[in-house]
């Protein structure tokens, strides 16, 4: 890792990273909207932004003076791996100027003949830092052995063999933080400020929060459900 990417990684320490992502089927899809979302996150105190797609990465880098962690979500017919699955997506993010590039760090089969090792080798030779999105402790240890800059617990609950649970997998986070020498980022299903604090106390280098801050269609649901509950109770009692 070069000095620049080392400094960027260090700037994340004990901070909140906000994931600003909206897929094509989501109401807030589009680089301009995601750039405004990133400005709002920066105003709120985020120290870095995680973003999907080269266009969003470019727009966000123009809008805020924060490091950007880039991914490209792309589905291929021959693989379940969809977060920066091949060298093609990795190159798109390098061209877009992502400071840190995150990718599926599991050992699942990738599209084409691409391997995890190839992606990490490309990033190691690049100016960007690398972040392996893992779902188990074994994957975290393996990614570290391949020379990644950091790992993130992003994929816990999203691979068929990892622990499936509603909230964040803080146990995986704690174990990885104890065993690895590189930074371990907490990411996935963190929805309360107290969980951010808990993750940092358990050894997280930094914490990523996405949906709980940047997906208003999901944030609305529990409020609407609370109103619906009252409505149903009242109607039932009338
Ligand atoms: C599994 C997967 O595809 N995770 C994606 C990775 O970038 C995003 O959809 C998540 O929003 C992000 O990881 C943050 O997590 P949460 O939105 O739960 O705070």
TrEMBL record:
Pfam families attached to this UniProt entry: NanE
Tagged with keyword Isomerase: yes
GO terms for MF: N-acylglucosamine-6-phosphate 2-epimerase activity
CDD domains, per database record: NanE
EC number(s) on file: 5.1.3.9
Class of this enzyme: isomerase
Domain of life: Bacteria
UniProt entry keywords in alphabetical sequence: Carbohydrate metabolism, Isomerase
InterPro entries to which the protein is assigned, alphabetical: Aldolase_TIM, NanE, RibuloseP-bd_barrel
Pathway assigned to this chain's UniProt record: Amino-sugar metabolism; N-acetylneuraminate degradation; D-fructose 6-phosphate from N-acetylneuraminate: step 3/5
Record field: catalytic activity: an N-acyl-D-glucosamine 6-phosphate = an N-acyl-D-mannosamine 6-phosphate
Coiled-coil region(s): none
Keyword Isomerase applies: yes
Family, as annotated: Belongs to the NanE family.
Function: Converts N-acetylmannosamine-6-phosphate (ManNAc-6-P) to N-acetylglucosamine-6-phosphate (GlcNAc-6-P).
The protein, known as: Putative N-acetylmannosamine-6-phosphate 2-epimerase
């Amino acid at each position: 890792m070069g000095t620049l990417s080392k400094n960027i990684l260090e700037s994340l320490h004990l901070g909140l990273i906000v994931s600003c992502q909206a897929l094509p089927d989501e109401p807030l899809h589009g680089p301009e909207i995601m750039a405004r979302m990133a400005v709002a996150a920066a105003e709120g105190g985020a120290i870095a932004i995680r973003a999907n797609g080269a266009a969003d990465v470019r727009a966000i880098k123009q809008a805020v003076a924060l490091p950007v962690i880039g991914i490209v979500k792309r589905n291929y017919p021959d693989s379940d791996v969809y977060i920066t699955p091949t060298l093609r997506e990795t190159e798109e993010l390098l061209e877009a100027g992502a400071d840190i590039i995150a990718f599926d760090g599991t050992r699942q089969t990738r599209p084409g003949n691409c391997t995890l090792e190839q992606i990490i080798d490309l990033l190691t030779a690049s100016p960007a830092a690398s972040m392996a999105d893992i779902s188990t402790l074994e994957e975290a240890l393996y990614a570290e052995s391949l020379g990644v800059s950091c790992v993130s617990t992003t994929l816990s609950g999203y691979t068929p063999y990892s622990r499936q649970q509603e909230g964040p997998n803080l146990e995986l986070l704690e174990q990885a933080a104890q065993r690895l020498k590189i930074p371990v980022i907490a990411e996935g299903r963190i929805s309360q400020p107290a969980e951010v604090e808990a993750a940092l106390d358990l050894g997280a280098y930094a914490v990523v929060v996405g949906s709980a801050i940047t997906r208003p269609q999901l944030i609305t649901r529990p409020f609407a459900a609370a109103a619906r509950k009252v409505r149903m109770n009242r109607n039932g009692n009338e």
